[in-house]
Amino acid sequence: MQERRKFKKRFCKYCESKIDLIDYKDIAQLKFSLSERFKIMPRRLTGNCKHHQEMVTIAIKRARQTALIPYIVDRKNVVESPLDMIK
Ligand SMILES: [Zn+2]
Question: Could you tell me the pTM of the whole model?
Fold first, then answer.
């Protein structure tokens, strides 16, 4: 029997677009790693490499402190696409 590949080959979105530095002010980049409730998506779901995931987490935490991204989202205020509310 031949070996089966259970998982699709994942790739890092940041590596693909060749981003060296993730800026906390650039929410468009951070969007890839944010869930709809502004949680940081784990690496196993996004497929980011370790190097970029660490940068993303730092950037997101900074963006939260500067109030670019909310810490929590109320249940009542949940919209289909909350990222549109930022802009
Ligand atoms: Zn990467």
Answer: 0.72
Residue 81, pLDDT > 60, answer no
CA distance 51 to 55: 7
CA 11 to ligand 1 center in whole angstroms: 8
What's the Cα-to-Cα distance from 65 to each of 61, 73, 77, rounded to whole Å? Answer: 6, 15, 20
Positions of E strands within the chain:
none
Q: Where are the domains of the chain?
A: 13-86
**How far away, in angstroms, is 27 Cα from ligand 1 center?**
17
Give domain 13-86's CATH number out of 1.20.140.10, 2.40.160.20, 4.10.640.10, 2.40.10.120: 4.10.640.10
Give which of 47, 14, 34, 23 is closest to 85, Cα–Cα.
Answer: 34
Interval between CA 67 and ligand 1 midpoint (Å):
26
